[in-house]
Amino acid sequence: MPNEAHGNDAEAVWEELYRERGKAWSGRVNAALAREAAALEPGSALDLGSGEGGDAIWLAQRGWSVTAVDVAPTALARGAADADAAGVSERIRWVHSDLATWQPAETFDLVTSHFLHSPIEFPREAVLRRAAAAVATGGLLLIVGHAAFPSGHEHDTLALPSPDEVLQSLALPPGDWMIVTKAPVERPGSGRPGEPATLVDSVLSLRRL
Fold this sequence. Notes:
The protein has helices spanning 10-19, 31-37, 54-61, 73-86, 124-133, 163-170; strands at 44-48, 65-70, 92-96, 108-114, 135-146, 177-190, 196-208. The protein has 209 residues and is α/β, with parallel strands linked by helices. The protein has a single domain (4-16, 28-208), classed as Rossmann fold, CATH 3.40.50.150. It has a seven-stranded mixed β-sheet with strand order 3-2-1-4-5-7-6, with helices on both faces. Helix 3 runs parallel beside helix 4. This is Class I SAM-dependent methyltransferase. InterPro entries: Methyltransf_25 (IPR041698), SAM-dependent_MTases_sf (IPR029063).
């Protein structure tokens, strides 16, 4: 949880998270992205809350041109270093910005957002509506969240909306979108340190018509 001294300073909160540990995440692509995007024709992609860049690098390795946005400079620096090591740095544009206020200036063939759950105040619904608006005609919007927290990682104050609730909150114009996936999806993971667990993701993917 964030240091109370940071209040709602998003950059300070997430910088503290990344700096207080080594590599925060595995560096592997998120399972839902690998499943939903594997068969897509590469184009332009927007990765919202890109963290240390595992998803952005996976997309770039498959020919996508990626814009990766995150509020934490340390996370972006780690992602850029890993992209350089993977030989795909020219395919990724790293953007340091707070998603609470950042506005996409273009549209994308794929817009992806994974686990935008914040321990501080964060306008998640507004961010996801802007994400939907940034999807090009024929493009895919992928929103993945936790359906439940694994054992040992509970945060009682965080809302975990279902795929139906996420879809409703987007307030999309009728007839403009086709549902591809709208379901809780299980995947293997870990709960308490050293203990395997079955994790459940809330997955919503939509095709813009």
